[in-house]
Amino acid sequence: MDPENSVLTHFRRRRLTAEEIRDSLLAVSGELVHADGGIPVFPEMNMEVALQPRMIQFSLAPAYQPSVRREERNRRTIYAYHCRGLADPFLELFNQPNPNESCELRDDASVTPQALTLLNSDFMTARAVAMSHAICCETQNTEEAIGSAFRRILGREATIAEVEQLEIFMQDTHENDERESKTKEPYPIEISRSLVEEFSGRRFEYREILPKFENYEADLGMHEVSKHCRSLADVCLLLMNTNEFLFVD
Amino acid sequence: MFTTSRRNLLLSLGAGLGPVALSNLLQAEDKRSAPLALQPPMFAPRAKRVIMLFMEGGPGHMDTFDPKPELTRRHKEESKLPGGLAKGYKFFVGSPFGFRHAGDNGIQMCDQWKYLADPYVANELCNYRGCQAESLNHPEALFHMNTGSRLGGDPAIGSWVTYGLGTENENLPAFVVMTELALPQGGSTNWSNGFLPPYYQGTRLRPEGSPLLDLKTPGHRMPAQQRRMIEELTKLNQRHLETLSAEDERLQARIANYELAFRMQTEIPDVIDCDTESEQTLKMYGVDEPDTDAFGRQCLLARRLVENGVRFVQIFSGGWDSHDYLKQGHTSRIKSVDKPMAGLIRDLKQRGLLEDTLVVWTGEFGRTPDNNKRGGVYSLGRGHNNKAMTMLLAGGGVKPGVVGATDDLGASASECVHPIRDVHVTMLHLLGLDDNKLTYLHAGRHKQLSQFGGEVIQDVIT
Questions:
Q1: Is residue A58 part of a domain?
Q2: Is the pLDDT reported for residue A28 higher than 80?
Q3: Which of A49, A119, A239 sits opposite B213 (nearest CB)?
Q4: Given this structure, which CATH class describes domain B43-208+277-460?
Q5: Which chain A residues contact residue B332 at CB under 8 A?
Q6: Cα of A80 to nearest chain B Cα, Å
Q7: Would A29 be classed as within a structural domain?
Q8: B151: nearest CA in chain A?
Q9: What residues in B contact A117, CB-CB < 8 Å?
Q10: Which residues are CB-contacts of A194 (< 8 A; sequence separation ≥ 6)?
Q11: Do the beta carbons of residue B274 and residue B304 sit within 8 Å?
């Protein structure tokens, strides 16, 4: 009946929106903080973008600094401070509209940089580690852990084939894991800026302090968890990258 | 009953054919998953690709390529000219530079241009002096020159071009932008896809750190593990596809995206790595010399990118806004771009790329012949001028020589006068695209780069 869905007999599959993706990732990793209202919060943003020099008339805008405490920055995206001149590249990539334009319909294009960000970004690593850590605390073995990841991320039980596939993957990952020594870059508490002076064309430099990073509550890093937990984090990251997670049926 | 769609069959074969073949099949078959697929131009093109060098701030036309001896004679005399930003007492400012002819086509250059003046390079150039901007402010004028609209938010010219022609290399972004550390005024709106789908937005190669965000596999993951993860993910996604009753192109496109992502991770660093260039080439662009290194590397990279199939490359170079200290400001700016620009033209010419590569050098507007006193002192600089400016065009179908003119003082364009939209229409025309047909339905109207149509500037075309 209605194979083309021309009379809308069933729900049309759609990709999650940018905000839904971020919120869902925080929700499945157990990090999402539910709270209503309040002043805008500053989620973590790709650090290269957050700290990049941003020209405003005659000068540079201050760097973007995320909220110091996890319970502030891990709130739903709707409570995030939205700066017109500095879009969050993660949200922008998943088609959050340009804040300078009205938008009658969001695009839901699949572009390759989305794959790069979902696999490689600090944001995704942090979610995968947080989730893996939580699962490791409440499960006894690999099979249970994989099952838990499926229930959290995809809302269903894993099939036997899936458990088998990912058990082998985890085992191989565990054996080849040489990640002990890799530590995350520390957050900078000061950066240097340079700018060309408007009238003279002369270049000058100055330091900008980033006080929020002095007492920053960082997310759990890949290097801070056990080997088992790291290989499970890779499983979590895989599931977070699936079509099944990113689309609603 | 056993049923399988052609697509499912292809997908099931995909694992055997190898992931590259899978994504190729999908992309060739499906415009939606390949919006950047190569498309034929509307008529025979003169150029296939564009390199646009944007001098942010507004270079003074009378201090670069458009000498004004009359202005020099009136140096520091009172000016009663209208226009510009300045109010109150104004005085004329003669150019601090001398001029001479370069090459055989009547091009004139101030004496600061040392490498560009070489006849081998200068003979390729068209100096167009007739363009008029509209806005007197930087961001609006930048938006106008880059997107056809002063308001900002419309698609950039590079977006329109990639929308019209697609890309010749799907492993690289089709429209690449390079800037200094600080973005130009108006930021990424200058290379935004606007209302066009997001595939067409300019991709900024970041001058420091990762050239594309998240391009690098994180430090804690070995490349072999990255490859493995993409394979495992493809398995999971394929299994999911098999459970669905109807095929869905979007899901298949996402599977292909991961393969392409992996290829981009290797191809982009290879293209960006200029170390494989000969010492002679590096020298030609001024790489490793303090004044020219930054712009030189970007120009060299522009050549490497177009050579590898990138459609539109844009480089922003700031600091041309000489309200004061004109001599110092323009001397240092010209020095930073002269050798790299000359190197680029020479290199493109030597490789046979110049004949179908359109090179455009422009600012967002020109500068005024006069300035006002600052604190009672004659400040030797210039204001913003939306009535006159100067551009260089080269390559792909461009006729070398001088086209158009400004008046004796350089206050306003006086011959072959055209608005910015005509320059845009001309650029599209050289690429084999008709601005009136290159449209996109948005907000109830078929929109186009020129907003409401324009004229091809025939005088700049061979």
A1: yes
A2: yes
A3: A49
A4: alpha beta
A5: 201
A6: 21
A7: yes
A8: A100
A9: 213-214
A10: A53, A203, A204, A205, A206, B181
A11: yes
Residues of A in contact with B187 (CB under 8 A): 54-55, 85
| pLDDT surpassing 60 at residue A109 | yes
| Interchain contact, A53 vs B220, CB within 8 Å | no
Q: What is the reported pLDDT for A98?
A: 75
pLDDT tens, position by position, A136-150: 999 999 999 999 999
Choose the closest CB to A98 out of B192, B214, B219.
B192
> For chain B, what percentages of helix, strand and coil (3-state, to nearest 5) are there?
35, 15, 45
Q: Count H helices and E strands in chain B, helices first.
A: 12, 21
**Is residue B108 a contact partner of residue B69, using CB atoms and an 8 Å limit?**
no
For chains A and B, CB pairs below 8 A equal: 172
* Number of domains chain A is built from: 1
Query: Min CA distance, B326 vs chain A (Å)?
Result: 8
Token digits of residue A243 = 């079509």
Closest CA relative to residue A143, chosen from A174, A176, A168, A177: A168
Q: How far B104 CA lies from chain A's nearest CA (Å)?
A: 33
- Residue A57 pLDDT class (50, 70, 90 cuts): low
Q: Is the dihedral of CA B56, B140, B138, A49 positive or negative?
A: negative
pLDDT in tens, A135-191: 999 999 999 999 999 999 999 999 999 999 999 999 999 988 876 656 667 899 999
Chain B residues inside the 8 Å CB shell of A3: 246
A9 within domain boundaries: no
Q: Are B234 and B218 in contact (CB under 8 A)?
A: no
Contact residues for B9 (Cβ-Cβ < 8 A; gap 6+): none
What is the per-residue pLDDT for A198? Answer: 62
Q: Measure the CA–CA gap between B258 and A112, rounded to whole angstroms.
A: 7
Q: How many CB atoms lie within 10 A of CB B146?
A: 30
Pick among B213, B243, B252, B382 to test the A interface (most A CBs inside 10 A): B213
ipTM above 0.90, yes or no: yes
**What is the model's pLDDT at position B11?**
43
Q: Cβ separation of B329 and A121 shorter than 8 Å?
A: no
- Say how many Å lie between the first and final Cα of chain B, rounded: 65
Contact between chains at B206 and A48 (C-beta distance less than 8 A): yes
Backbone phi and psi for residue B366, each to the nearest 5 degrees, phi listed first: -100, -160
A246 contacts on B by Cβ (under 8 Å)? 254
Tell me which residues of chain B have a pLDDT lower than 70: 1-34, 84-86
Distance CA B76, CA B92 (A): 5
- Domain spans, chain B: 1-30+224-272, 43-208+277-460
> In this structure, is residue A8 part of a structural domain?
no
Interface test with B, best of A12, A55, A180, A225 (most B CBs within 10 A): A55
Q: Which domain holds residue A46?
A: 15-99+109-248
Q: What pLDDT score does B29 carry?
A: 39
